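Q: What does the assembly look like in three dimensions?
Context provided by user:
Components: two
Sequences:
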Amino acid sequence: MKAFASAFAFAATRLFQALLVMVAILVIAFAVRASLGDPLREIMGQSVPEEERAELRHELGLDAPWPVQLARYLGDAATGDLGTSIIYKRPTVQVVLAKFPASFELVLGASLIVLLLSVPGGVYCAVRPNSLGAKLILGVSVLGISVPVFLTGIFLITVFSVWLGWLPAFGRGETIDLGPWPTGLFALDGLKHLLLPAITLSSIMLPLFIRLVRGAMLDELAHDYVRTARAKGVRPLRVWLVHALRNALLPLVAVGGLQIGTLIAYTLLTETVFQWPGMGFLFLEAVTRSDIPLITTYLVLVGLFFVITNTIVDLVSLALDPRVSLEGAR
Amino acid sequence: MSASTSHMGPRVLAGFAAERPGAAFTALLLGIVGLASLFAPLIAPQDPFDLASFDLLDAELPPIWQQGSDARFLLGTDAQGRDLFSAILYGTRISLFVGILAVVIQAAIGVPLGLLAGFFGGKVDALVTRAADIQLSLSTLMMAIIVMALFRAGLGGQALSQFAVPLLVLVIGLAEWPVFARTTRAATLVEAAKDYVRAARSVGSSDRAIVQRHILPNILSPLVIIATTQVAGAIMAEAALSFLGLGMPVTKPSLGTLIRSGYDLMFAGAWWVTVLPGLVLIGVLISVNVLGDALRDALDPRRRAS
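A: Here is the predicted structure of the complete assembly.
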């Protein structure tokens, strides 16, 4: 009962912290908008007489002191309104979220590849550290870390699109609408378009996760319970997969959760190489065309995603292993 | 005790090379690339930053081993008629310069903070560790992309290209100081508990003298190791930013910029503008990483034992 109460307190603290971080991100976004963007230009263009500008400025409340404007911005943000895009003339939240399915499916595809390859690869490297296969896997992963993600993408396009002509080089291909969510996962053409970008994105995360799994497994295999299990005659495969791997996954969730920011950055690079119509691609378009409201909205939404996933990772670690996290809560 | 390992005389280097031919080879490769880019103004047949010195009529010529090439251009030309060999030499120079200087900044911030945290402990330690944790959770590359994007959106592409080098150095340098701080802190904690530090204190050495004269020289090995891998990371970050159009401008291309500018031409058949700088970049990164691994094996006594 006491443990439950302290777990609840931890979850509550964690959620409150997440809320604070979100407010901080919104304040930064507000500061960026206030110092870089001119909302009047967004609305009326540049060739409007000064009196009209002053009038509109007053009407929009832009001549109010900045704390008032900040309060208004935060209030609007709470209702999901972060401004209007200069390029698209639509609410920025709508514009950015419309690109979310594309980015999500790319990350999903890459994560599946990483998960399916890194766990067996990492376990193998840990249980057979001196085998040729393990050395090969680790050698290739040094290579994978050394090759920038955009060059991997360019290399794959050269081989599979330009030379062999097997797979399309850019875009998302055919999509099917599932309500508001256009998906490329249920059309052959969409899947073909997804394959190269997903492999590219996974190529940079894979070496990292193989090393993580291997390191965590090596730590677990050194524990006494592994020896005990072996001594009482449990088959090695069962010891590795059922006993050690289960415990090795604990630190993996926590450390893997820290990689989300990096994942977003690499997604941005991958989307640029493959002209994948996702959020990162949109962000760079907004940057080249100085669409400040769109830029800040992207940052706020990515920040939100970052905070949500980090909170979930923390809560999952709590659920998996209350001992570690509760120490931090005190 | 550490006097024997800190002397890197010629004999030690020769032994190192004999033990690890792969690492010696990459070190040699890096040396050649480094010297070539250092003396780029003397080697390069053309100044790739001087727009007036190239001719649009020479645009997109292939390397000399391909048909339709021009003997003046060893590795062909890009879309503006720029000699690719010269551009790669100068581009490597920028990439290495930004990468190394960024790591110098990382170390300049991280090492003193790590020494303070490890030596004094307590509140200083808690503060530094917490700040490092927060900074690391934000992902370097993402922070660098955001900061450069805001500069670009705020100042415009023109102004950004003027300040690209100092901005890149600062952004990449500031983002990764925690790596140095953590390593320094951990190593300092180990050293500060040793007898020679207590001995120094008992003869009346000041804290400052103990840290500077005794602890710092003894924690140099781990710092050298991470500095190597950090340089690879910084070079890669610079290339990624330039590839996104948030780094070096087309008028002063780094390797990343060259790869980006050639990417548009690739489908038209002019593969060399992307592939050749890409190969140089990969070569440099792999060499630095292999060298870092070898240094780790050579300098870390725990690994050497196994």
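Follow-up: Chain B touches chain A at residues 136-143, 145-146, 149-150, 152-154, 156-157, 232, 236, 239-240, 243-246, 259, 263, 266-267, 271, 274-275, 278, 281-282, 285-286, 289-290, 293 (CB under 8 Å).
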